[in-house]
Amino acid sequence: MEIYNSLKDITSPFADSFVTIGNFDGVHLGHQKLFSEVVSRAYQKQGISIVITFDPHPLQVMRPEIGIKLISTYEQKVEMIELAGIDILVVIPFTRDFAATSAETFVDEVLIKTIRVRELVVGYDYAFGKGRQGNIEFLKEQGRLRGFPVTVVEPYYVDDMLVSSSKIRELVSQGRMMDVKKLLGRNYQIRGTVQEGKKRGGPVVGFKTANLNLSEEDLCPRHGVYVTQVVHEGKCYGGVLNIGYNPTFGENRLSAETHIFDFNQDIYGKKIKINLLKHLREEKKFSGPEELAEQIQQDIRQAKEILAEAQKELLLSCEEKYNR
Length: 324
Known about the structure:
With 324 residues, this protein is α/β, with parallel strands linked by helices. It has helices at 29-44, 58-62, 74-83, 96-99, 103-115, 136-146, 165-173, 177-184, 201-205, 289-322, and strands at 2-4, 17-21, 48-55, 88-93, 117-123, 150-153, 157-158, 161-162, 188-193, 210-213, 224-232, 235-244, 255-260, 271-281. The chain is 35% helix and 26% strand. A hairpin with a 2-residue loop joins β11 and β12. The longest helix is centred in the last third of the chain and has 34 residues, at 289-322.
């Protein structure tokens, strides 16, 4: 996938461009339907599939007081868009000056002159331009006048839940990771570099942990203990994660502490990815290290049972796939 980090980087219009536009926070199943439509149309008509997105998120620029919490990092978003089979990603730096662009100017300068759109695919609720003037009706009329068909992808529901970034943020904050997975099409993931903690996980409690610093400004899952999969250097390990302030030891800094099963590597300063599978329990204050260690043992037993069931489901699906 080719990536253009500015419209200025595009020196000449593309040929036969099949385009979709959006913020695509989380790259959930609804977004993936848009990408699939664009890729399919481009393939059928021997064109190229293009995604136009913005960085930072427009609400971070226009409404910073809201403090929007993003589901995915920019890095994750790019990865998921590439996995969808998109040929070209155009990332427009979003500024207040750019926000003042009228819908008509955006169509003329970006879609027509810079990209040379052949067909446009958008979500049912998409709007752009100053004052969000560029709604669906506007786009369809522009398409009719300027010669590019506009396809609108209808809302997508899973188990009566509308697949949307705002719904996923709500579910993450509630710790409903199994429902989050249904809407994302994958497990919710946090990433970071392993930090040195208080080093009491092993010596004091008996369970070594890999610690990531979290910010209250980020989308933080409900505090408590989770069943996890930890990805390090391409390998996946089971684990249990505590998100919170570690009340047993009187901490006042938000952190994510993960005990990784069957793992004994020094990974300080290394990057890891943590998939959150299921919320097990709330964070609580224990009388001391011994009581905490007993509870962690219970958490580990429960987590391993859940991970074993997940593995069974994976094996069964493989057997079904190859035995049809």
